[in-house]
Amino acid sequence: MLKTELRAVRARSYARTSVFLRSAIETADHNVDGIVRNLSADGACLSLSDTSLCPGAAIRLTLRHIGRINGKIIWAKAGRFGVSFERKIDPAAVMCL
Questions:
Q1: Which residues of 72-88 are buried (b: 16+ CB within 10 A; e: fewer)?
Q2: Of 12, 14, 28, 63, which one has the greatest count of Cβ atoms within 10 A?
Q3: Contacts (Cβ under 8 Å, ≥6 apart) of 24
Q4: What's the N-to-C CA distance of the chain in angstroms?
């Protein structure tokens, strides 16, 4: 585990829920489709085909039943990205049908 990932794990305040949700991600330069792998009130782990994104990059994630949420990439490794949200969300709302 990378040091940045380890710090992110230690800093987690909210439990993460494993999910597999398609999502649209917007960056400053382009849009990309991704998969939300896990989700909490203050962040998520994403799988993206675009591996050019780096920690510190601002993104906007669209989640069903939540809408758009701004965030920042805090770690990146092999197509997976940890994201910290600018505001808290209710992860249970995303799972509602």
A1: ebbbbeeebbbbebeee
A2: 63
A3: 31, 32, 33, 34, 61, 62
A4: 35
**Rounded distance between C-alpha atoms, residue 10 and residue 4, angstroms:** 10
The residues that bridge with 62 in the sheet, in sequence order, are 24, 68
Candidates 55, 56, 49, 45; CA nearest to 31 is 49
61, 83 contact by CB (below 8 A): yes
The pTM score is 0.80
Instruction: Count CB neighbours of 63 within 10 A.
Output: 20
